[in-house]
Amino acid sequence: MAGKGKDASSSNTKGKKKEVKKETGLGLSVKKDDNFGEWYSEVVVNGEMIEYYDISGCYILRPWAMSIWEILQTFFDAEIKKMKIKNCYFPLFVSPGVLQKEKDHIEGFAPEVAWVTKSGESELEVPIAIRPTSETVMYPYFSKWIRGHRDLPLRLNQWCNVVRWEFSNPTPFIRSREFLWQEGHTAFMKIPNFLLLTKSCFISSCCRIKECLSCCGVKLLFLCWLQESFLVLEILELYRRIYEEFLAVPVIKGKKSEHEKFAGGLYTTTVEAFIPNTGRGIQGATSHCLGQNFAKMFEINFENDKGEKAMVWQNSWAYTTRTIGVMIMVHGDDKGLVLPPKIASIQTLNESGIRAEVDSRDNYSPGWKYSNWEMKGVPLRIEIGPKDLANNQVRAVRRDNSAKIDIPMANLVEQVNDLLNDIQKSLFEVAKQKRDACIHTVNTWEEFAEALIQKKMILAPWCDEEV
């Protein structure tokens, strides 16, 4: 879908004459609409988001990218703490015995599992796997820690890295062999039986507890029972907010098919983004109801309030640094990155709580600096020259549409805040309009095939059953 990056295409650009700005020497050699893959590969490097590493599929995340991840992490971590979810950390390595205990789950990841087989020059007696995800790492200890109903709910999250040895074309942020993510895992008591009849409601697009309670006709008295079941959708809503409120990327919430759901799960909900230039959807983040599948395999049992043995229900959920790649693909242009203000590490005006940096480098011309910061996607550039000082004003230049605005010094903070808010809103609206323009409703297979060729986002009848 996206560019192959240095791993497969670095040689393709050799010998090409770059279409750079003569006065600065900066620029991209390809346009976004002409060669999306090469454009993306250039943007992530020239925008100082990543550096290629000497192992294919692994990338160095530079500070410009890490600052975005940290902003998203700060938001999400604060929100899950409100839900009484606590952070922890489990080891990177997995013993093969535990890994093979859950065959259905592992079959979904088996081709991507990396193994440690040597220590120095010595072969290990038993190879050790590197986690592709942490269910098999964590759940044996859930079984140890959970004894009675007072130990529930157990709600844990960890910020960590995972390794999936992808064999398809590696793409920075989008498809890499090591990536950063958060992964949440919960265990809780069984939901009331009558609610199983309304599962189709609480896994639908309605995602707020009160709305679901209303449409299910369930009294608020049962809120404590429902809370963990709705956690799947509460987390999904946080993922929507990450994409739409922070990254300014429109997404669609929904439920995965049985074939596409998380291996070993009961059902999987997802937020899906769309890249108009490629005509491809892309999975943004997932939140799973695991049912009791893992609880059975890892014997996560407890004594309920009646003194009876019972088995927990579970959820898990994760989002990754793929979020950054999706944002770049949606907003980037022929000048480079375009960063929404909420996640940009540099906005302007530090003392007013607006992230800023003064470029006082005297070995570069103003034109070079302008192009440099445009490449890096800074939302708003403020220029101050002798004429501006004489007129007691500054000139602000928007990255999203290149509009120039003269702002009086006295109103600088207020107007800059207004501009940043408008840029954030505008980026989302433009992305949504482009996405919506690609949605095509079909009713026949012939219409479906044609819409796919035209790179459309297809809305079609679907029953998820084989005939």
Automatic annotation (TrEMBL):
Its EC number is 6.1.1.15. PROSITE patterns: AA_TRNA_LIGASE_II. One of its GO terms (molecular function) is ATP binding. One of its GO terms (biological process) is prolyl-tRNA aminoacylation. It is an enzyme of class 6 (ligase). Residues 68-340 form the Aminoacyl-transfer RNA synthetases class-II family profile domain. InterPro entries: aa-tRNA-synt_IIb, aa-tRNA-synth_II, aa-tRNA-synth_II/BPL/LPL, Anticodon-bd, Anticodon-bd_dom_sf, Pro-tRNA-ligase_IIa, Pro-tRNA-ligase_IIa_arc-type, Pro-tRNA_synth_II. One of its GO terms (cellular component) is aminoacyl-tRNA synthetase multienzyme complex. Pfam families: HGTP_anticodon (PF03129), tRNA-synt_2b (PF00587). It catalyses: tRNA(Pro) + L-proline + ATP = L-prolyl-tRNA(Pro) + AMP + diphosphate. The keyword Membrane does not apply. Keywords: Aminoacyl-tRNA synthetase, ATP-binding, Ligase, Nucleotide-binding, Protein biosynthesis. Gene3D superfamilies: Anticodon-binding domain, Bira Bifunctional Protein, Domain 2, C-terminal domain of ProRS. Residues 1-20 are annotated as: Disordered. HAMAP family: Pro_tRNA_synth_type3 (MF_01571). PANTHER family: BIFUNCTIONAL GLUTAMATE_PROLINE--TRNA LIGASE, PROLYL-TRNA SYNTHETASE. This is proline--tRNA ligase. It comes from Fraxinus pennsylvanica. The lineage of its organism: Eukaryota, Viridiplantae, Streptophyta, Embryophyta, Tracheophyta.
